[in-house]
Design goal:
3% strand; single chain; signal; two-stranded antiparallel ribbon; mainly alpha
């Protein structure tokens, strides 16, 4: 049997891409949200109209430019440039951003803690 270098190269590339995909889907240990479901969070992001203001990877038509883009959110050190990017702070921010930063343009959207946990779980998948 004759080896095909091109097929071997394609196989190696598929394996590398699969491993890279596994790495990117892992949520950092310190950013896991208890009882947070990223898929439910994606639905809530659309339901609450977050795409109107933010560009959000993985959310269809999320091309807003009023708020900051949320790409690579899990890698950010701060929320709104002033609060450590921790699960508790993020859930609080999603529930009531003006309580944490009174002059923020992000409104209190009436999001419950349970819903905020799902949204935070989705945002922490963005690496």
């Amino acid at each position: 049997m004759k080896a095909c270098p091109r097929a071997a190269g394609v196989a190696v590339m598929v394996i590398v891409l699969a491993l890279a995909g596994c790495e990117e889907s892992a949520i950092p240990q310190g950013m896991r949200i208890i009882d947070g479901n990223p898929e439910r969070g994606a639905l809530l992001i659309r339901e609450y109209g977050c795409p109107t203001c933010h560009t959000i990877p993985g959310i269809r038509s999320a091309n807003g430019i009023v708020g900051p883009p949320l790409d690579r959110f899990a890698l950010r050190a701060f929320i709104a440039g002033r609060h450590a990017n921790t699960p508790d702070n993020l859930v609080h921010w999603i529930m009531d951003a003006p309580d944490m930063a009174p002059h923020t343009a992000m409104p209190d959207m009436g999001i419950s803690e349970d819903q905020a946990r799902h949204i935070a779980a989705y945002l922490y998948t963005l690496r």
